[in-house]
Amino acid sequence: MPARDEILTRLRTALQRPELRFPPPETRRLTADERMTVGRAEGDRWALARRFGEELAALHGTYEIVETVAEARMAAIGRLQAWLAEELAARHTERPEQPGDRAVVIWAAEELPIDGLTPALADLEFQLIEPQNLHDPDERTRVRHARAGITGVDAAFAATGTVVLGAGSHKSRAASLTPFRHLLLVPISRIYPSAEAWMAKMRQDGTLTDFLRESRNVALVSGPSKSADLEGILTMGVHGPKIVHAVIFDDIEAMIRGY
Known about the structure:
CATH superfamily: NagB/RpiA/CoA transferase-like
CATH topology: Rossmann fold
Largest sheet: 6 strands, parallel
Low-confidence stretches: none
Number of domains: 1
Oligomer: single chain
Structural class: alpha/beta
CATH class: Alpha Beta
Order of helices and strands: HHEHEHEHEEEHEEHHEEEEH
Strand order of the largest sheet: 1-12-7-4-2-3
Number of helices: 9
Strand content: 15-25%
Shape: globular
Number of strands: 12
Mean pLDDT: 88
């Protein structure tokens, strides 16, 4: 008797379930068109946007959906101002604002999907930090004290509420990793039904290999940072942001009009 059959026979005998099925010796390989996960999402772009938001909320994140780029810009600004107000109100002191309260770690303007956001934030006296060299102690100190981070997304998956963040020279991973709060800017054009759908589209366009090679680091982020101990007690924000909020907006019309 071959060694494999002997091992399986021993397992069946130990479990007292001789009818128990085991994988065949030569399992059939899945094709690129076959699903490899249970989760799936269907519908038009608005249905996918709502599904993404619902899945993110199930992961302890929050979201809002707006119709235009201009509304998304105002929503992002309003969210940062609300977070700042929450910080100040929680301190109960006469001069609650501290250095770093207005510091925001952010991707470079050309990498954000909302035009005009960075100058608008600068006008409101937010201190925008675009990390270039985290080996520099001074830059690490600035980043460490920032309470919020802003990024776009390279892709978002409606079925799981997950976003893809590819780090690069103008897309620092510190923006999504070190701050207490993370603001995601999610254009509807970048929401895919699933990870498989995104990878299939990238392969079809011939861009998947380039994306992986050009990214220093690729992170798949599903809601706030979470960690659990042996008793299953969940703690938020241990290894990353405790609060994640997504501004989901329709950029299709703006793309068609060329702005």
